[in-house]
Amino acid sequence: MQQQSMVKYIIKRLLLAVVILILVAFIIYVMMRCLPTSYVQSMAQQRATAPGSKSYEEWLEQLNAQYGLDKGIIPGFISWCASAIRGQFGDSWKFTVPVTQKFAEVIGVSVVMAGISFILELLIAIPLGIVAAIKQYSKTDYAITTVALIGISLPTFFFASLLKLAFAVKLGWFDLTGLVGRNYAQLSALGKFADMAHHLVLPIVTLVIVSVGSLMRYTRTNMLEVLNADYIRTARAKGLSESRVIYHHAFRNTMIPLVTIIGGSLPGLFSGALITETLFSIPGIGYTSYQAMVAGDIPFSMFYMCFLAVLTLICNLLTDIMYAVVDPRVRVAA
């Protein structure tokens, strides 16, 4: 019975996710079609300036027909969906290769950065949040809270610029930009790995610092709420050790609400990577998408934003499933 309830719950969430994805993709498609400038307009202007060439209007009409932009919003979106279902997202206008091919070339770096940042965020934020709650109103609590507020308040571009000024310009420990150094081709396999890892230190530190504060504060708040619950006072009255009360009873119940913010933080790392990768010129999905958007590359921009939407929906679905596992009442309510 419980297994059937769980299956129904997952099916409902999957169907809802599909509906949401279609709506989000439609909104993104409309936004892309309504951009004030695009690759098509730039190419039409460029070709119209050639000696003896056709007029700008003629080139624009021809290029719009070539890329299917002469259709209305609804027919164009249906046509795009039909191709997307088959895994065909067209060719990137800026990079002149299939969108999926370019995505496969650059996604690896972003996955490594996001994965390491995500793990470090959990390892730093959750323990510090628990310590701040246990030592409420102490110097330790104030110090951790101050660090968390600084991380929340610092804009990514400002903090990244500070890191580059301090560690790249002043101290010379790191390169300002790029994923590899000048002598990368002459290095051994281990040397190439170390060189790339060295170049990823500052971008990863940027991602961790600007994202760790929210999780740290959220952990502290939930831990304080659990520590003031009646069953915690009962556990202490029974003579249980403080470590068992905190890490066995309180922490397990604190993790339930933390599932939500943890599930939503991973997509945030990929979307935040657009700024970080651009500032450090790291050739990941974020920097590549920035270049595509600046160039008016509709196919790649559409794919990137839909990728973020799919990633967000997957993380939300996994969050819902985790909720249903730890709290059966969620399945009943659904």
In short:
The chain contains 13 helices and no strands.
Please explain how this structure is put together.
With 334 residues, the protein is mainly α. Helix content is 78%, strand content 0%. The chain has 13 helices and no strands. Helix 5 (99-134) packs antiparallel against helix 10 (242-280) and helix 8 packs across helix 10. The chain is globular, with a radius of gyration of 25 Å. The chain starts with a helix and ends with a helix.
Derived structural class: mainly alpha
Main beta sheet strand tally, sense and closure: none
For the termini, the CA-CA separation is 15 Å
Provide a count of the helices. 13
How many strand elements? Answer: 0
Using the alpha-carbon principal axes, give the shape: globular
Stretches where pLDDT is under 50 for at least 5 consecutive residues are none
**What is the helical fraction, as a range of percent?**
over 70%
Content of β-strand: under 5%
Supply the key terms.
13 helices, globular, 334 residues, mainly alpha
Give a topology summary.
Layout: H1 2-33, H2 39-48, H3 56-66, H4 73-85, H5 99-134, H6 139-153, H7 156-170, H8 189-227, H9 230-237, H10 242-280, H11 285-294, H12 298-326, H13 329-333
